[in-house]
Design goal:
Strand 4 and strand 5 form a beta hairpin. The chain is of the alpha/beta class and about 950 residues long. It is built from 26 helices and 28 strands. The strands form 8 sheets. An 8-stranded antiparallel beta barrel has the order 20-21-22-23-24-25-26-27. The radius of gyration is 35 Å and the shape is elongated. Helix 2 runs antiparallel to helix 4.
């Protein structure tokens, strides 16, 4: 496919400062750049020969002044308005769009424009048509050599009297220098996205603080997440600062004019507007720019013309809005900000969708199982499991694209990723895997032309799993990885022999609050109602690939929901939103009221995805890999059975409570969840996730049955067991412990005599204990019961000894005898005691099973040893549970957590009795079985290894 957005010679040296800083070859210091900004000369706007009406696209008189007394009838105030009002006394100049000739000269388009998108000018997706076109969006056609066509109109805001114009390039370089310490490389180009350079959410918070402390620039954190390029941040701040300065100046009332200085033709990404002008974020496809590439990097799927970087700040209000009018962000009826997508993001999405129309036409691939597969995202959570499933269930050789500097580093990174997810990295796996250092965000995946062409002709399947998963970043920041990367894979699939493209999408394409259904063939969400950048990019990628199907490309879309941990290894993704929410549920013992959670374990999702990839009859369809949804009742019941009794709260109440707890007791591993709960944009994603309907997958279920795979099952407490253990080990969750409200408890009273070791037991002794369990997990994993109570023994101390810590193990060591003999362990008691004088004691007790007829007494008799802490036993004896109290206390007297319902209480009692009875039965049966084996041993000669008993 023809690459566009090629380098041009116009505006040479435009980014010399930023590139010097990026190269590290002695760019100006921050102080020098700040001085340059403050001393920048005043630029005088030059009227243009013609203007363009933003609504109709018809040429207007450049000298005409717009009437600002009342808004124009029919104007969409919501779309044009931002949060910053036009200052009184400011001159607002709307320049005509500049059209660049082949030499890079700027000329005004003489003809009327054709606007394919209502109420807004757009940037042409293809090449320029020449001088006869105006601002019109899709109407630009022609030779494709005029890359300056369709540049943005600029809105110049100047106070009266005119102030010195800021230097946008210099400020962008200053911001880039300030951001450098927060990225791994230590340096950042003005046109490189902060997060693409390796910055983190925590780094973004630190960057905002640094800009305010060191430069006095106040930038909202959500705006950084929306578009984190230093140039965009600089331009956004200049717009806000210019409007603020104009409001504070006491000058004569200004008269907005329709004439102004045209924006320079943007022939390279990141070109700044002429000094003296502020970029106007027009709600149109004029924002269809791609993130600024690194030097020498040309996106293969970028718009043909690269306008000056539009910012994601709230737009300056329309010049037709009366001076002094206050314009706020778009809201819903409830007044919640970010209720709809940003206009500039919608325009960028429209521009990106058109890129699929440039894909070449292709035929159908051979319907055979793949033999050579390209897999992206193999270092991620799902991608690493999918790699192993492809190797286990096919004969294919897999090429893994890994972001790294060279093959050695890429191989090491892949191996570490597999090991971190508890997956093997053996010589057999390395033999069937070829690691390719590259980058999904770069043209041709960052591969050389030779490698690209070789893959295009050798591969027979392309699998795209790689994606930037960040619920805080905006569309502009994520599109290069999630949208342009997907289209680059489509380009590879369509180049050379036809190949199927298997795209891992997301159930987030339905993340619209109030959507009715989420079936595999149901309509996707309205994109203007998706507010999170991640949701928007997944929607745009899937819709763009649907267009690719019209070109003959076989595209399979698989949509996982929340991806839970592995049911056997417990491997989990700590940054997954579902894992974060479940961790918070267990940690805080509270749950927000939700409709359902569409989540499935990673091993099931990966296995089904591998089945789709390897089965030609399954290609070309959409699949929901969401498993069986969990309802609120399911989650509450599962956690209750696990001893984690939770309280259901309203969403807003739960969010406030969770934030307060996380701020009072920070959990580093849940830092991302804290940032999500603070972000207005991410909150809409959470709301849509928790309030959305259950996803359905009839086609997926039919395929699973046809392939003989394990059917989907609810991701319940049993499936989450190992995952929850790892979450607790990693600090993301908290398992039930002694400090929690007991799940079930009962009393036990023992009486008997003790005496000195080696002497007679003649001193009365008794224990009044309370045995409890915090959860069934405690029984299943440890076979342990918590103990509290007191010991009354005059031989040890005149006053009762209190139990500080106590445990009872049921069939410890699987009941294996401590010594060679016939006594098998039933129960083992270990107590730590404290007397009234502060002295500490210990007690060790055992109940044994023997092949004798007094089975009933064996279950009640406890052999004990008592001693001071750090000293050997000084007392020994036997304590027995009275026969009349055993049934009364330990069966009829069982108490259950009062927060459970009557039915849950009965289930808890029966579960405990069934489990405890089975364990005791196995313990009592052991010695009888062993005795029977000895009796039935009728051999006349002993084996040499057998010893006499």
């Amino acid at each position: 496919m023809r690459e566009v957005n090629e380098d041009a010679a116009a505006h040479a040296g435009q980014r010399a400062t930023g590139e010097a800083i990026e190269r590290g070859d002695g760019g100006p210091s921050v102080e020098a750049l700040l001085a340059r900004i403050r001393q920048a000369p005043t630029a005088t706007p030059t009227p243009t020969a013609t203007g363009t009406d933003r609504k109709s696209g018809v040429g207007t008189d450049a000298g005409a002044r717009a009437d600002t007394s009342t808004p124009r009838v029919g104007e969409d105030a919501d779309a044009d308005a931002g949060r910053t009002a036009v200052p009184s006394g400011a001159v607002v100049d709307v320049g005509a769009p500049a059209v660049s000739s082949g030499a890079g000269a700027d000329v005004a388009p003489p003809g009327a424009g054709t606007d394919l998108y209502a109420n807004a000018p757009t940037v042409p997706f293809g090449a320029g048509a020449g001088a006869g076109t105006g601002v019109g969006g899709g109407g630009d056609t022609g030779t494709g050599t005029d890359r300056g066509a369709g540049a943005l109109p600029a809105l110049a805001v100047s106070a009266a009297p005119a102030a010195p114009a800021p230097d946008a390039d210099g400020l962008a370089a200053v911001v880039a220098a300030a951001a450098g310490p927060f990225v791994p490389g230590g340096q950042l180009s003005p046109d490189t996205d902060f997060f693409d350079a390796g910055g983190t959410s925590v780094g973004a918070v630190e960057l905002v603080a640094a800009l305010e402390d060191e430069l006095g620039m106040e930038i909202d954190l959500d705006e950084v997440f929306a578009d984190a390029r230093p140039r965009s941040l600089a331009l956004r701040w200049l717009v806000t600062a210019g409007a603020t300065a104009a409001l504070s100046a006491a000058g004569a009332p200004a008269t907005p004019t329709a004439a102004g200085t045209p924006a320079p033709a943007a022939d390279t990404i990141g070109t700044a507007p002429a000094p003296g002008t502020f970029p106007f974020p027009v709600p149109a496809a004029a924002h269809g720019f791609s993130p600024a590439p690194a030097p020498g990097f040309r996106p293969a799927l970028a718009p043909a013309s690269s306008p000056a970087p539009a910012t994601d700040t709230p737009s300056i209000p329309s010049p037709r809005i009366p001076p002094g009018a206050t314009v706020t962000a778009r809201t819903t009826g409830a007044g919640t900000p970010y209720a709809t997508a940003r206009p500039e993001d919608l325009d960028q999405i429209l521009a990106d969708l058109s890129l699929a129309d440039r894909l070449p036409w292709t035929g159908s691939p051979e319907p055979l199982p793949p033999r050579r597969i390209l897999l992206t995202g193999a270092t991620g959570f799902l991608g690493s499991h999918l790699l192993l499933d492809l190797l286990r269930h096919s004969d294919a050789h897999v090429h893994c694209l890994v972001r790294a500097a060279d093959e050695e580093a890429a191989t090491a990174r892949l191996g570490e990723a597999l090991k971190s997810h508890r997956l093997p990295w053996s010589s057999e796996i390395r033999r069937r895997v070829t690691v390719l250092p590259g980058d999904i965000r770069r043209p041709h995946l960052g591969l050389s032309d030779d490698v690209w062409n070789k893959l295009a002709h050798e591969l027979d399947s392309v699998v795209g799993v790689a994606a930037a998963v960040d619920f805080l970043r905006g569309y502009q920041s994520l599109r290069q990885s999630n949208v342009i990367g997907a289209l680059t894979l489509a380009e590879l699939a369509a180049t050379g022999p036809p190949k199927p493209l298997h795209h891992i999408s997301s159930i987030a394409v339905f993340n619209e609050v109030g959507i009715a259904s989420m079936g595999e063939d149901d309509p996707l969400a309205h994109v203007d109602r998706l507010v999170a950048g991640y949701d928007q990019t997944k929607w745009a990628a899937e819709v763009a690939l649907r267009r690719a199907r019209d070109h003959g490309l076989i595209v399979t879309a698989m949509r996982p929901g929340g991806i839970g941990g592995h049911t056997r290894t417990g491997a989990h993704n700590p940054q997954d939103l579902s894992s974060g929410l479940i961790s918070a549920f267990g940690r805080f013992r509270t749950v927000p009221a939700f409709h359902c959670l569409n989540a499935a374990p990673v091993d099931w999702v990966s296995r089904v995805a591998a089945g789709v990839i390897c089965e030609p009859d399954a290609w070309g369809f959409d699949y929901n890999l969401t498993g069986v949804p969990n309802t609120l009742d399911d989650v509450v019941r599962d956690m209750a059975y696990g001893g984690m009794h939770v309280r259901v709260q309203d969403w807003d109440e739960w969010r406030t409570d969770a934030l307060a707890r996380l701020e009072a007791d920070p959990v580093p591993e849940l830092g991302f969840l804290t940032r999500v709960l603070r972000s207005p944009t991410a909150l809409k994603l959470c709301e849509a996730t928790l309030k959305g309907p259950a996803a359905t997958g009839e086609r997926t279920a039919a395929l699973v049955e046809a392939l003989g795979l394990r059917p989907a099952a609810r991701y319940d407490a049993q499936a989450q067991l190992r995952t929850f253990e790892r979450l607790a080990r990693d600090g993301l969750a908290r398992l039930p412990d002694k400090g929690d409200q007991p799940y079930l408890w009962f009393s036990e009273t023992t009486e008997g005599d003790v005496g000195p070791v080696g002497g007679g037991a003649d001193t009365p002794c008794s224990m009044a204990l309370t045995l409890s369990i915090a959860s069934m997990y405690q029984l299943v994993k440890e076979r342990r019961v918590d103990v509290g109570g007191e010991l009354v023994c005059a031989a040890a101390h005149p006053a009762p000894l209190l139990v500080e810590h106590g445990d009872v193990w049921i069939r410890p060591e699987e009941g294996i005898p401590q010594r060679h003999g016939m006594r098998h362990q039933l129960l083992r008691y270990r107590l730590t005691l404290r007397d009234a004088d502060g002295g500490r004691w210990w007690l060790e007790g055992h109940k044994y099973a023997r092949a004798r007829r007094d089975v009933w007494r064996q279950t009640r008799a406890l052999n004990v040893e008592i001693g001071r802490e750090g000293e050997p036993a000084s007392l020994t004896g036997e304590l027995v549970v009275p026969a009349d109290s055993y049934v009364r206390d330990q069966i009829d007297g069982i108490k259950v957590d009062p927060r459970l319902t009557g039915r849950e209480k009965r289930v808890a009692k029966l579960t405990w009795l069934a489990w405890f009875g089975a364990e005791m039965g196995r313990g009592l049966l052991g010695p009888f079985t062993r005795a029977a084996a000895d009796l039935l041993d009728l051999r006349r000669t002993r084996t040499p290894s057998e010893r006499p008993r």
